[in-house]
Write a structure and sequence with these properties.
It comes from Rangifer tarandus platyrhynchus. Its EC number is 1.2.1.27. It is an enzyme of class 1 (oxidoreductase). This is methylmalonate-semialdehyde dehydrogenase (CoA acylating). By secondary structure, the protein is of the alpha/beta class. Helix content is 38%, strand content 19%. The structure holds nicotinamide-adenine-dinucleotide.
Length: 538
């Protein structure tokens, strides 16, 4: 009984501490209608282990995408605040890097437990700021949690190499060591998963970390930072700044930042890759996508249509791995009317409403852009089989909703095919053969993900082998690898040499040091050893 009471008391204390993160990252964060304009909650900076109010005079409104009410404000951090955050990371780096790897692992082990205990709370916050359904928001946290669990295996992942007796009495071995201060810049669509791709992996290796979350959805990162502190991460090892281009330029240029992890659009990613690399930093950049699902006529029709609908419209299509393009091969084109019927059944609603299958888009501008791309399809000769542009959601008339939309008769030269739409829109192409389908996919510049639906092993093997895309699903519509593998988007979807998480994640956040050592037994006994000139010979 006493043990149960103690656990309950600990839970209540944790909740109370979380509430201090910012007045608002938790249950006190209410829609703006409950506040006067002066009481709109502000997102704090996290510097040296403290959640502090920015002194900035430039603030960005955060909106609930289902209502467009202002629910918070996030600062554009001042130069002094950003400098203080990097100094904090730099100051704490030597001690954190010297902390036993087992102690760092223990912090991560406690962290994964705290994330599990607070998963629903984090998800609720994601739905409020980002709009996705609560089920999708929980998935967002869960996929990030898996990376934290993977980071707990650091003791095996970070091992160096050894080679004994490379010559007489001489051994060669290597260590993987942290880089120093690393930084992360994240997008709006996965407010928990993507920050969790970054700082846990970097920090378990001994780096300290500066996060700049998406200015549209900063809440989940703040709560995750509080939980990380509660798990035992020392003050100053993780710092958080906010802002847009100014903060991004600051990160790219700062001489004390050694590596940048970026996830977001191609426009920002290419820019950050170039600018960060120019300043001598390691940069890994996961960017945009156009993912094709190739449907063979021998596929299991029921499964395939269900998978296509879920992967194209789930999360309102705001997923870099959304299956946004279908290629129907041969007789599979006859399935189109049934695909439309299934898509029609999806329920569009605010993400926190029971039964919602998809929520709103992130901003009115995103909705306008998606609608314009649908328009472009009609203008360029495609057919709109299902049109979600004029959808009205009862009770949420001001939200950024677009219903499931299917555009058929699409050709590769059309704008709606060439652009990443990032909304609940499936564009459909048709081909007579698998070879033609493969050519279309390989001619597209992006290489994030693709899937083939077939019951023929040889067809699946041929497609997986010939398609030039980094992540391939066989009867799996969204083939995001588990974190013991790496996220291996390729071509225009990725810049850099080393991918996120998996073994490659550890490689990105570490550098090798090799040690060649010679210990002769007679060294200890000889008083004056002979001079030996080192040569490159054997
Ligand atoms: P975004 O590029 O607009 O923003 C990402 C980050 O970059 C934000 O922190 C933002 O402040 C900053 N930023 C935005 N524009 C910038 C600019 N011009 N210069 C410098 N910094 C800038 O991306 P988004 O709209 O938040 O996210 C959606 C995009 O992210 C889509 O293209 C999607 O495919 C991509 N994405 C890719 C992956 C992946 O793993 N490949 C995962 C998730 C999202």
């Amino acid at each position: 009984m006493a043990a149960v009471a103690a656990v309950a008391a600990a839970g209540a204390a944790l909740r109370a501490r979380i509430l201090q993160v910012s007045s608002k990252v938790n249950s006190s964060w209410q829609p703006a209608s409950s506040f006067s304009s002066s009481s709109v909650p502000t997102v704090k900076l996290f510097i040296d282990g403290k959640f502090i109010e920015s002194k900035s005079d430039k603030w960005i409104d955060i909106h609930n995408p289902a209502t467009n009410e202002v629910i918070g404000r996030v600062p554009q951090s001042t130069k002094a605040e950003m400098d203080a955050a990097v100094s904090s990371c730099k100051r704490t780096f030597p001690a954190w890097a010297d902390t036993s790897i087992l102690s760092r692992q223990q912090v991560l082990l406690r962290y994964q437990q705290l994330i599990k205990e607070n998963l629903k709370e984090i998800a609720r916050l994601i739905t409020l700021e980002q709009g996705k359904t609560l089920a999708d928001a929980e998935g967002d946290v869960f996929r990030g949690l898996q990376v934290v669990e993977h980071a707990c295996s650091v003791t095996s992942l970070i091992l160096g190499e050894t080679m004994p007796s490379i010559t007489k009495d001489m051994d060669l071995y290597s260590y993987r060591l942290p880089l120093g201060v690393c930084a992360g810049i994240t997008p709006f669509n996965f407010p928990a998963m993507i920050p969790l791709w970054m700082f846990p992996m970097a920090m378990v290796c001994g780096n300290t970390f500066l996060m700049k979350p998406s200015e549209r959805v900063p809440g989940a990162t703040m709560l995750l930072a509080k939980l990380f502190q509660d798990a035992g991460a020392p003050d100053g090892t993780l710092n958080i700044i906010h802002g847009q281009h100014g903060a991004v330029n600051f990160i790219c240029d700062h001489p004390d930042i050694k590596a940048i992890s970026f996830v977001g659009s191609n426009q920002a990613g290419e820019y950050i890759f170039e600018r960060g690399s120019r300043h001598g930093k390691r940069v890994q950049a996961n960017m945009g996508a156009k993912n094709h699902g190739v449907v063979m006529p021998d596929a299991n029709k029921e499964n395939t249509l269900n998978q296509l609908v879920g992967a194209a419209f789930g999360a309102a299509g705001q997923r870099c791995m959304a299956l946004s393009t279908a290629i129907l091969v041969g007789e599979a084109k006859k399935w189109l009317p049934e695909l439309v019927e299934r898509a029609k059944k999806l329920r569009v609603n605010a993400g926190d409403q029971p039964g919602a299958d998809l929520g709103p888009l992130i901003t009115p501008e995103a909705k306008e852009r998606v609608c314009n791309l649908i328009d472009s399809g009609t203008k360029e000769g495609a057919s709109i089989l299902l049109d979600g542009r004029s959808i009205k959601v009862k009770g949420y008339e001001n939200g950024n909703f677009v219903g499931p939309t299917i555009i058929s008769n699409v050709k590769p030269n059309m704008t709606c095919y060439k652009e990443e739409i990032f909304g609940p829109v499936l564009v459909v192409l048709e081909t007579d053969t698998l070879d033609e389908a493969i050519k279309i996919v390989n001619d597209n510049p992006y290489g994030n993900g693709t899937a083939i639906f077939t019951t023929n092993g040889a067809t699946a093997r041929k497609y997986s082998h010939l398609v030039d895309v980094g992540q391939v699903g066989v009867n799996v519509p969204i083939p995001v690898p588990l974190p013991m593998f790496s996220f291996t988007g390729s071509r225009a979807s990725f810049r850099g040499d080393t991918n996120f998480y998996g073994k490659q994640g550890i490689q990105f956040y570490t550098q090798l040091k090799t040690i060649t050592s010679q210990w002769k037994e007679e060294d200890a006994s000889l008083s004056s050893p002979a001079v030996v000139m080192p040569t490159m010979g054997r």
